[in-house]
Amino acid sequence: MSYTINDKVARLMCKSKGKHALKTKKPLVLLNTIGYVKSDKGDATCLTEMSFMMACWKENEFQNSACSKEIASFYTCVKEANAQAPGKGDRLLTKEINTLLRRFPNYSSH
Fold it and tell me: What share of the chain is helix, strand, coil (3-state, %, to 5)?
């Protein structure tokens, strides 16, 4: 017997009283694109160190040698923040997902 995905889902979901627990108005088919989802970047880090570094540059006419302590402090903060940040491999971006969906489109009729 050939079942569609809707039949299989309905058969699995109708364990109680023989009724279909899942009634869909549209077929359960993956779309070929997804909408834009704004990623949550989180809070900005190292703002204090950056502001100290920029203030030092402004006072010393943008000479790096005079602000080496502030620059080192800023880079240390950035390294620590990157070490604590979750890896990029956790989630795909919307653009990456749409690229994959275009590469492997769904041709089922709906």
Answer: 50, 0, 50
Look at phi and psi of residue 18 and say left if phi exceeds 0, alpha if psi is from -120 to 50, else beta.
Answer: left
pTM, rounded to two decimals:
0.46
* Tokens of residue 86, six digits: 């979750």
Full DSSP string of 26-79:
S-----S-------------SHHHHHHHHHHHHHTTT-TGGGHHHHHHHHHHHH
| Element (DSSP H or E) covering residue 7 | helix 5-13
Burial class (CB in 10 A: 0-12, 13-18, 19+), 67: buried
Confidence of residue 74 (pLDDT cuts 50, 70, 90): very high
